[in-house]
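Changelog-adjacent note: as of this version, every example in the card shows the full chain rather than a window. The one below runs 77 residues end to end.
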Amino acid sequence: MSQDSIPFEGTVQETMLGPLWARAKYSQISPELLDDQKAIEIIKNIDYDFSKIQEYLGEWRGLGLLVRAKSFDEALI
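Full-length structure tokens:
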């Protein structure tokens, strides 16, 4: 984790950590579906407890974010 700590708790920015976490997680689990090395790098450098995002999103919401990310990526390519 980074030495810098940015206060995300209770901010609008905190809501963006869910999609970022999902991109990083599913890039590691299924790189053939989604390969976002930058998301993985960012997650590793943010001083934040992502376990609460993982707990909130669960598997189904996380998969929904994977599908959304994949759709966005394909639309942009």
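Structural remarks: The chain has one domain: 14-76.
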